[in-house]
């Protein structure tokens, strides 16, 4: 389980996170929703060691993550698929996937997991030797998720996976997130498409200017009038 307690993060005097508390239980999909600048990406980047916290605690299965190096955090079973996809454009699909496994030494396991990613994303298999920079936006998002899966995470963090994608592609991405979770990976999802995120989430948190203002099951937050007005439109 991931447990965050009283987490504070500051950037150059600006408080990005103001003492947030949240947890992600094993086997669940949790989502963090909120407007741009609320602190959603900062939360993920702090968990993964890319941003330093001012104070607080982030525990993963009882072990403190704050102060650990990024490779130690990845090695403990946490992976991040970043906002904006960030694939390596001049490398092939297959090369991008192999980079996701750079901490691993089990060659047979890596080959097996490449096939696992290809089963999840058949289009990546069709384009395995294509340069990542020539893929469509949706295909690049699939590659970013596949690359993160190559570290064999127990917790998969996804930052805005639907950003800039066509509605049909968004449906595909969310179906795959569900399937990844069904196959035993815990998911923490950051998403501006609150409607889609809450529909698949077991539990959700609403973040506003660095503070968690509401919590509940995905269904409870979907039905909450304040959430509907702020993030879903009055008609949901």
Structural class: alpha/beta
| End-to-end gap | 31 Å
Strand/helix succession? EEEHEEHEHHHHEHEHEEHH
| Cα-atom radius of gyration | 17 Å
Number of helices: 10
Sequence stretches where pLDDT stays below 50 over 5 or more residues: none
Explain the overall architecture.
The protein contains ten helices and ten strands. With 236 residues, the protein is of the alpha/beta class. Strand 1 (2-11) and strand 2 (14-24) form a beta hairpin. Helix 3 runs parallel beside helix 6. It is globular and about 45 Å long. The mean pLDDT is 92.
Write the layout of secondary structure elements.
Layout: E1 2-11, E2 14-24, E3 29-33, H1 40-47, E4 55-60, E5 63-64, H2 70-75, E6 78-81, H3 93-100, H4 107-120, H5 122-126, H6 137-149, E7 155-159, H7 167-182, E8 186-190, H8 194-200, E9 203-208, E10 211-217, H9 218-223, H10 225-232
Summarize the structure.
This protein is of the alpha/beta class and 236 residues long. 39% of the residues lie in helices and 26% in strands.
Question: Which key features would you list for this structure?
Answer:
236 residues; 4-stranded antiparallel sheet; alpha/beta; 6-stranded mixed sheet; single chain
